[in-house]
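pipeline stage [seq->struct] | target=OmpA family protein | organism=Paenimyroides ceti | residues=424
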Amino acid sequence: MENSIIQRIKSYISPELIDNLGFTTNEPEANINKGFDIAIPAILASLFQKDKNALSGLFTSVKSIFTDENTDFATKISSMPSVLSELFDGHKSEVVNSISTAAGIGHGSAETVLNTSALGVFDYLKGIAPDFDLGTIKEFIGTNFSSVSSLLPAGLAIPGITGWTDTHKIDVDPANNVPPPPVTPPVPPTPVETHHYASNEEARRQDKKEGSSILKILIPLLLGIVLIFILYRSCNEHFISTSDTTDRTDTVTTSPASTPLSENTTPATREKLKVELPGGVTLDAYKGGIEDRLVAFLKTDYKGKSEEELKNVWFDFDNLNFETGKAVVTADSKVQLDNIVAILKAFPDAKIKIGGYTDKTGNESYNLKLSTDRAMTVKKYIADAGLGSQVTGAEGYGSEFATRDASASEEERALDRRISVSPR
């Protein structure tokens, strides 16, 4: 399921981090990947099975972890064990054992995979429901529940996941109609070592040797944790730096690939002009900019166009900038947003849809989320001005309509990164 929710969450965690966990845990990369393919649906399925009261308490803890955007990876990941213990009703170790057996990785590696998966899942859900709204999350997981639960391997026992239909892959004893007991990896007997110390000096040498053995285990483990932190941080910064960093400059001036209309052609030179609105209000804008073109269009008999025709008419913001990698509008951009608000007030019968777009670089899941967040930011700005009823929707398209290759120059790729409005 290449485009499944599991793949999207794994991309959100970052493929580089997942691949490199094989190195830090000394496990085959394929087995680590398999561990994530089991851990992520197990977490989602368990969330879906929880009742509202249990979820409320769980997400109170999760929300406190994600409230501060400056909270670093190490702090977040250190909070996951307690959250997972609550999620699995105190049976986290059984889930870890099951993942360890099914994926063919050690217990410690399975626990690392489960904790990292949990962080990715909650980070992903935060993008869908910024305030961790339980209704939105339950609906989202419910829509994908069949595909999610079917990804759990046969015989995998996850405490708390009950009421599955025949489509799920849990093996059932046909005679008793009972699922098999949890699969727990066999624990080899611990050899009993008898030490005969001839002297205190020999005992000290033995203690030193045993201490050295513990350090050999602890040092790689600590290095692994540090490496995971560095990888997670650098991978996410890489997504931010390569996905959509342009809205810092005045380059959002062309039309979407699907809307090659003459209304959306912005001249190369920037000539200032006054845009006159009904009622005598004038706006400071640029010739060929969004205000100029949108007002001209709204003064036509556009209501005579069919809904299908209007879907292909888009006007691009040409002075709307965001903070790099964020959906936060810069202070200078509010002038153009205020102009759009003034236009909608002057044309109370007009409605618009807002679209967000990115170029083809970076991670597509991240691009889709960023373009959606930015479109929603513009929608909220207009709604806060009291004109929410004139916005029919806001949607992010990621790089779906990008026309420039990822290897194109910065100037060319900048043309694919934009926020647009479509009159309705």
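stage status: PASS
auto-comment: Residues 5-243 form one domain. Residues 162-216, 232-267 have pLDDT under 50 and may be disordered.
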